[in-house]
Specification:
By secondary structure, this protein is of the alpha+beta class. It is about 25% helix and about 25% strand. It contains 19 helices and 42 strands. A ten-stranded antiparallel sheet has the order 1-2-9-10-11-12-19-16-15-14, with helices on one face. Strands 6, 7, 8, 13, 17 and 18 form a six-stranded antiparallel sheet that branches. The longest helix has 21 residues, at about 330-350. The protein is globular, with a radius of gyration of 28 Å. The chain binds alpha-D-glucopyranose (GLC) (2 copies).
């Protein structure tokens, strides 16, 4: 354990794979996620948050009030009444002053321990793999030398499943709430009599001394959660909710001798009734499925076995990639937290966090394709399914629904499509999947277009990829560059929007038909995607197709070099009236980050020195110690010809904020040019683990990347926001694993082509790939950044420029790489 005095709010316990929070009043609520498959919970360091099944909008099980005061109020609460003194192990909501506190955020679980006056209460929250429920394991210990008879009250509020309705439609919701109580189990069954075939179960595995299901009874009408009536008076009322706000609260009376402890659990489950009859009698639901769940987790050892399964689950997943290298931040993030965050972004896309309310956005087309890049090495089969789900929301003309709902898998009509980068990311995710898994059959998988008949699908995933590339080649503007539509990756560069109406969305306003605005970033992304596709065709042996795609690449490359070079960097776009964006001829927004990254990664500037010059311009004009700002100078006034990008105050979000996601493309570009020192320095500038010394400025969780840090134009330079759900997660994993460490899955095997700081003596890594395990040892005797002079597999010399072939015997193989 490394307890560093500078780490004011907590520290990394690397061997336990936990972040330990030592005081509850963190600079912001610090979040963790529970769940890995279909059932998820948000859980902060003070036990705040909520739970849902699959879809935070359509199947929300417990209630949370966003934008609350304080920020994070409502969650999985326990009130302890110890001889009249009322407190919570997680500090909130009572916030008693004399409670000792520790929170351990681990992989898929959060453990909070509070103690006061010799009584210790430990609450451990997790979702067992493969289950649609949360387990809350409680352990109460009497560490005093006197008998103690504390009372414990559980508390959480039920949500009426459809979260928007739950938050807005009180004229109905206050009249529909229904519950049943049987023994220690509380059943939330609102709307079950009519169209729902599912309910929420909240049960205790131990006998209870009472319960409450009416919030008014438990909390009161004029009271807040910090002064809830029942725990303060010490007696549950056995209230049965009829309408209003149903909750689940249990009373547990304990009697603990000095030194004694007792453990029991709560189960919060989403239950689908399936084929079972819905009712045993009028108004009496058939609880057989729920009862079986309670019985399962009441069995001795069941909870601990489920927890052990969770730990195994993560040990196995993370074992696919582990590294030991000279930089502790890169190592810790890559080995544990970054992969963990990639699971969250894969599962949540941008839907449910402390900044995303779970009702606005579902799965993003471009977001989810990118999220896959950091996830595919963990569970390729889930990546395969996701790729096909996403592709099925593409339309036959090549455009895509920008978002879709995870429950229905249908495109979201409110936001629609016409973001002309979306389709290209599908090429990146598919190629990454095939390189990882070797499974080319996905290309022939039947996958319909969203505007076609869903029966008798004849199109394949390969058709989607071809449609995507063809669309960009076809939809080009006056300079031959791709049209931008509503926006490209930068959602806020809205060149066809011209909005003067404050109540409309920048993302959907404006008519993109017949528009002429063009994007250099999409051109760069196309270059990259086309090269990926050509290499895929090479691998498949389709020489003609590879040649055809390479011709498109060459044409686009010439267009970029002829129309988008501004003298020292690549421009960003051409506006609807043909005006250049991201040029020295502009007053503000002269240089943008995205086009430098993608043009270089797509192969522009490789032969004429422009790639290096573009990156040097980034270094000179955009790089700061907290990361690379999106553009400079920041926009000071709203310009309707550019859209939302000029709406933000200077220094935040897309207006000269440090948007971590796009920083990673520059990291990879430096790796491409062989500059390992720059790549690591840039990486550390946005790495949360490296921010602990400035944590009161940074404010965000030290264990997950943030979507953005405030740029130097902002008064709060370096402050993190929108933590957790960001494309940064997947891309930083690509940066560290494939860029710096250079361990790259390829069609025919694994490549190892590191780009490290010159001072690194080397590193070792374990990579599971297509069933085999590679123990990789890289040595750097000449102190270089890049270049492999010898490559050995199990002692045998291989071509240093080549690929390590797939052996496929399921065994461990030694790889030795000598740089120089
Ligand atoms: C947000 C969006 C992503 C977009 C980015 C830049 O992170 O989720 O789709 O590319 O902002 O605007
Ligand atoms: C805003 C944000 C951007 C995000 C978009 C999603 O424009 O600035 O980051 O992608 O909203 O709708």
């Amino acid at each position: 354990m490394s307890l560093d005095a500078q780490e004011k709010y907590g520290y990394f316990d690397d061997s336990a794979r936990e972040y330990v929070i030592t005081r509850p009043d963190t600079p912001l609520p610090w979040l963790n996620y529970l769940g890995q498959d279909e059932f998820f919970g948000l859980c902060t360091n003070t036990a705040g948050g909520y739970t849902f099944w699959k879809d935070a909008k359509l199947r929300r099980l417990t209630r949370y009030r966003y934008n609350n005061v304080p920020y994070d109020l409502g969650g999985r609460y326990f009130y302890v009444n110890d001889d009249g003194a009322v407190w919570n192990p997680g500090w909130k909501p009572v916030k008693a002053a004399d409670v000792a506190y520790e929170c351990r955020h681990g992989l898929g679980y959060t453990k909070i321990i509070g103690s006061r006056d010799g009584l210790e209460v430990e609450a451990l929250f997790f979702v067992p793999p493969g289950e649609n429920l949360e387990v809350w394991k409680i352990t109460v210990r009497n560490r005093s030398n006197q008998r103690k008879t504390p009372k414990l009250f559980s508390y959480q509020e039920f949500c009426f499943f459809e979260a928007l309705n739950d938050m807005t439609n009180y004229q109905r919701t206050y009249s529909i709430g229904e519950v049943e109580v049987e023994g220690s189990a509380i059943y939330h069954k609102t709307e079950y009599r009519e169209r729902r075939n599912h309910y929420t179960l909240f049960a205790c595995t131990r006998p209870i001394a009472g319960f409450d299901t009416s919030r008014d009874a438990f909390v009161g009408i004029h009271e807040g959660l910090h002064e809830a009536r029942v725990p303060f008076c010490g007696q549950a009322t056995n209230s049965l909710a009829f309408g209003w706000n149903p909750i689940g609260a249990h009373q547990i009376d304990l009697d603990l001798a000095p030194g004694a402890e007792e453990s029991f659990a709560f189960v919060l489950a989403y239950v689908e009734q399936g084929e079972e009859p819905k009712f045993d009698a009028p108004f009496v639901m058939n609880k057989s499925v729920g009862r079986a769940i309670v019985a399962k987790y009441s069995a001795p050892g069941a909870v601990d076995a489920a927890l052990a399964k969770l730990k195994d689950y993560w040990d196995t997943l993370l074992a696919n990639f582990q590294v030991e290298c000279p930089n502790e931040h890169a190592q810790r993030m890559a080995n544990t937290w970054n992969q963990y965050q990639c699971m969250a972004t894969f599962n949540m896309s941008r839907s449910a966090s402390m900044y995303e309310t779970g009702i606005g956005r579902g799965m993003g087309f471009r977001d989810s394709n990118q999220d896959l890049l950091g996830f595919v090495h963990m569970i390729p089969s889930r990546a395969r399914e996701r790729i096909l789900d996403i592709a099925a929301t593409q339309l036959s003309d090549g455009t895509c629904y920008h978002q879709y709902q995870p429950l229905t898998k249908k495109g979201n009509a409110d936001i629609g499509g016409d973001f002309y980068d979306d389709h290209l990311w599908l090429v990146l995710s598919t190629c990454a999947y095939i390189k990882e898994s070797g499974d080319v059959s996905i290309l022939q998988a039947r996958c319909g277009f969203a505007d076609h008949d869903t029966e008798n699908v004849t199109s394949t995933l390969l058709d989607h990829l071809e449609t995507s590339l063809a669309y960009t080649m076809k939809k080009r503007g006056p300079h031959g560059l791709p049209l931008i539509g509503h926006a490209d990756w930068n959602d806020c560069l809205n060149l066809n929007c011209f909005s003067t109406e404050p109540n409309e969305s920048f993302q959907t306003a404006g008519d993109v038909r017949d528009s002429k605005a063009e994007s250099v970033m999409i051109a760069g992304l196309f270059l990259y995607a086309a090269r990926e596709m050509a290499e895929l065709y090479d691998f498949l042996g389709h020489a003609d197709d590879a040649k055809r795609i390479r011709a498109d690449h060459a044409e686009m490359l010439a267009t970029v070099e002829n129309t988008a070079w501004d003298g020292a960097w690549y421009t960003r776009a051409y506006a609807a009236d043909g005006a250049v964006v991201g040029s020295k001829s502009n007053v503000e927004g002269q240089i943008y980050i995205e086009s430098q990254g993608w043009c270089v990664l797509g192969g522009a500037g490789a032969d004429n020195g422009r790639a290096r010059q573009a990156l040097e311009s980034v270094h000179e004009r955009l790089y700061t110690k907290n990361g690379i700002v999106l553009q400079q100078p920041a926009y000071s006034t709203y310009d309707k010809a550019l859209g939302e990008v000029t709406s933000y105050p200077p220094g935040v979000k897309e207006n000269a904020g440090i948007f971590s996601h796009n920083n990673t493309w520059i990291h990879l570009a430096w790796c491409k040019l062989g500059e390992g020192d720059r790549a690591l320095e840039y990486y550390l500038s946005i790495c949360p683990s490296a921010k602990q010394e400035q944590i009161d400025t940074y404010r965000g969780e030290p264990y997950v990347y943030a979507q953005m840090l405030a740029g130097r134009d902002a008064p709060c330079f370096g402050e993190a926001k929108n933590n957790w759900l960001t494309g940064t997660a997947a891309w930083t994993f690509v940066v560290v694993s494939q860029g710096l460490l250079g361990i790259q899955p390829d069609y025919r095997g694994l490549r190892v082509d590191p780009c490290i700081p010159k001072a690194w003596p080397g590193f070792t890594a374990t990579r599971r790939f297509r069933g085999d395990t590679y123990q990789i040892r890289v040595v750097n005797p000449d102190g270089v950044s890049k270049g492999v002079k010898a490559l050995r597999l199990d002692g045998q010399e291989l071509d240093p420029a080549g690929t390590i072939p797939v052996i496929g015997d399921g065994k461990t193989h030694e790889v030795e790489v000598v740089l120089g």
